Amino acid sequence: MEAIGGTLCNTHDSKKNLSKEIVKSRDATIFQGQDEISSARDLFMTGSTKNGIRRGLLAFDIEEDDFPYDAKVECAEIRLHVDSTSDYDGGAYDIGIGRSTLHRVTAAWKTSGENMLQGVNGGNVRTGDATWSYAAYPTSRWGRKGGDYDVENVVATREEGGEIHWFGGTLTMARIVQEWINVKTNPFNAGFMLIGEESAANSGSESYVKYSGAENAPDLIPRLIVTYTSPSQGRKHREYSSYLPEVPHSAALHDDVITSGSSYTDNSEKTQNDDVTDSNTPNTFVLVFAGGLIIGSMMGLLIGLYLKHSKNVRKREEVTNKRDPAVINMFMEDDEVHDGLAPIVK
User: Fold this and answer.
1) Which one-letter DSSP state was computed for residue 303?
2) Are 198 and 46 in contact, with CB atoms under 8 Å apart?
3) Is the Cβ–Cβ distance between 38 and 28 less than 8 Å?
4) Mean pLDDT, residues 75-79
5) Measured distance CA(316)–CA(182) in Å, rounded
6) What is the value of pTM for the model shown?
7) Is 121 exposed, middle or buried (0-12, 13-18, 19+ CB in 10 A)?
8) What pLDDT sits at residue 146?
């Protein structure tokens, strides 16, 4: 497939680096609060609709022979073709679609690739599809509803250029792709989550983007474009620093469903595991409280016995010290007799 070339990464410096475009990918859309609705064919989307939040999943399959053994990634970017947006008017794609960020997915997910988007909704879920609650319906759940991804650390933010959007050009992006290349035999590569402008869900307005998926025409499909060096291919490793600025952690926390500080809440975020933990909390408190009472009672009993014993010992010593010496001798002689000994004759 013909290479298109990068925009955030310098794919034209062929004397110093090499470039590779990965075009084998899979994508899906998950729909807020919908466990039996899915979409993973032709298009995928991200952002807010009047029916709720939409999030896009995207993963690229890196084959073992895609890169030489000594490849060192300098830069990586994702190129996406915009099919439509919430404010598309036939010419301007980028009006009012808000901010989009790319995050690393931290759990494996699947898709059947069967259902297509119907407007801003999907179709009836198929076995193996990713949904809001399931990484693979109906057997594998996400750790939390809405997908498992690195919330705080943004891999990249969206760069716009008409009907093309780019994500990447950061050091974080390069390191992630390098990791996938280094572990070619069995890399954990669950791809990325695209988080759009989700705050619009508060007001009932819409702010979303639809992207062309893996089943589209070759010039429209998602592409992962990588520039790298490789001494075995005649490109020596070098110091590379032409990265876009990393997104601060505080700026990454714009996800209104997950983070506090937003007036928008989604009660469906709690998983079954969360429910179990919450229901057990009162029982745990009762057990801890009862255990403390028992231990405290035992300690009090032991201390009381010790004090009583000490008091008796002191009392006996005081009585002994006040006795007449003759009486004491008498008691001593009586003790000796009872011990089976003859009395001492003086």
Assistant:
1) H
2) no
3) yes
4) 97
5) 83
6) 0.70
7) middle
8) 95
